[in-house]
## 1
Amino acid sequence: SPALSSAKTIAGPIDVTVYATANRPDTQWVAQVEDVGPDGTSIPLTEGALLGSLRAVSAQGTWRGADGQVLMPNHPYTQASQQPVQAGKLTRYDIEVFPTLATIAAGHRIRVTLSTADTPHLVPTLPALANLVGGVYQVRISPTKGSAVEVPLVPAH
C-alpha cells in the first residue's frame, strides 16, 4: 500500500485472491501480511496458506462483503472437494489469512508477500510434493480477473 496518512487498525480476517496459471497439477500459496516502516523494516503480522488442489470454497461459512467479494473463505479441505489444477488454465485461489488485530502507524505501509513455501512451518506431504515439484506460476493482474487483497481497516484509536 502507499504510506498511510493516519494510523489504521487491521481488525479481522484477510482474503488474498490470486488468479494464476500453473504448469503442474497442484500449487502451494503462502500470503504474509507485514507492517513496513518508513525505513523499510518490516514486522510480520499474520499469514495464510493454501494448497491449490484444495481451493474449493463453500458458500456456507464464507464471509462476503456487500459487493460479493470474499472476505474470509471457508475451504472444506475434504477429499470430495479436492480438484487438480489444470495446467495453463487461469484459476482463482482464495487464500484465508489468519484474522489479526494490529495498528499500523501513520507513514507505514501494508505489504502482502506472496510466496510458495514457508519452511519449516509448512512442509507438503510426499504425494503433494510430487505434484508441486518444478511448478511455475504466473499471477494475473488485470481489471477483469485481477488478483486482490481484502484488508479490514478501521481508524486507530
## 2
Amino acid sequence: MNAVVSTVKFHLNRRTETFVVPLSIAGSVAVISVLIALVFWRSGSQPGSEAWIQGSQSNPGIVYALAGFFGYLGVARVATTFPFALALGATRRDFVAGTLIWNAIAASYVALLLAVLNAIEIATNHWFAGFYIFDIYVLGGGDPLRLLPIVFFGVLTTLTVGGVFAAAWVRFGAIGPQLIAGVLVL
C-alpha cells in the first residue's frame, strides 16, 4: 500500500495542473461564453426569453474545454511518470492503483468545483444577467445530483483513457496507441 500512496503523492506533486488549471479553464470558458452571449444580446436576442435559455443551455463549451485538458493530462501524467516510478521500484499494479486514486481525486475536485460554480450561477439568477455557463443540459440542467456524477465519471473516464493510451505508447511505442484506436474504431 505504501507504493500506492507514494504514486498518488508523485502525481499530486504537480498541484497546479491538478487544481489551478481546471479552475482557470472554467474561468476562461465563462468569460468567452459571456462575451458570446453579449454579442447575441447586442444583436437583438432577449436574455430570459425561451429561445435565449434554450440556446444558452445547449452550450457545451465547458465540457469540451475540460475534456481536452483532462485527455492531455491523463496522457502526460502516465507517459512522464510511469517509467520513472518503475525505475524507483514501484510495481505496475501499485502504479495503476495510485494513478486511479489520483484520477478519482482530480475528478472529485472538478465535480465539486463545477457544482459550486453551478450553485453560484443559480443563486445569482445566472450571473445577474441570464448568462447560462454551468447550468447547461449536458451537465444535468442545473441539478447538482445529476451534475456531480456526470462530471466525476466524465473526468475519471477521460483521465483513465488518456492514461491507457500513454501506457500503450510507453510499452509499445507509436504502434500501441494506433492499435488501441484501430480496435476501438472496428
## 3
Amino acid sequence: MIKAIIVDDHQLVAEGFKQLIDNNKTADVVAITGTIAAACPLIRDHQPDLLMLDVALPGSNGIDALPQLKALCPHMRVIIITMYAEPAVIRQAIDAHADGYLLKSAAPGELVEAINTVMSGNTFICREAKDIINGIPEDLPAITLRERDILRLLANGYSIKETADRLCLAFETVHSYTKSLRQKLHCNNMASLVRKAIELHLI
C-alpha cells in the first residue's frame, strides 16, 4: 500500500482528502499536519511514497519548500493541492519539479487519477490547470506568491504604503518588490505594471 502524508493547514480539507483516499483505497494516509516544520520529521520517520502538499502554509510556501522536503525522502512523489489557479503559480510548481498539480476545485475523481498517475512515474496536471496554462507564453516571468499578493493589492487600488501595512511588511520591502516586478515585466510605472500583470493572468 502507498504510504501518504497530507500537509494542509485546513483540518477539514485535509480530513476530506484522507476520507476520499481511504474510500478509494488508493493509499494509506499515515500522517496529517499543517506546517512545513512539522512535516519534516514526519517525512524523515515515515519515508512516505506520496506527499500531498498545500502551497499557502503558515510561515512558508509549499512550493519553495519542495527541494528541502524531497531531500528528506528522495523517492517520494509530491502532488501540489491548492486553490491557486494563477498560471505563474502553476509554472512555479512545475519548475520546482512537483509531480502533480491539483486544484481544490477539481472533481474527486481527479484526486484518484492524480495519485495513480504520479505513482506510476508520470506527471499529473488537473484539467482546469491545463486549461489555464494553455496559450500562456513559455517565457512567462517567474512571479513568487509574495509578489502575486502585492500585485493583487496594487491592482485593487492600494498604495505601496497601504499594501505594506496589509501584508505586515516594511514600506521599503514592498517598494523593492515593486521595483523587481517592474524589471521582470519591463514596465516603467505602476499603472503599466498592473495592466501587464492582468494581461498575463498573473493575478
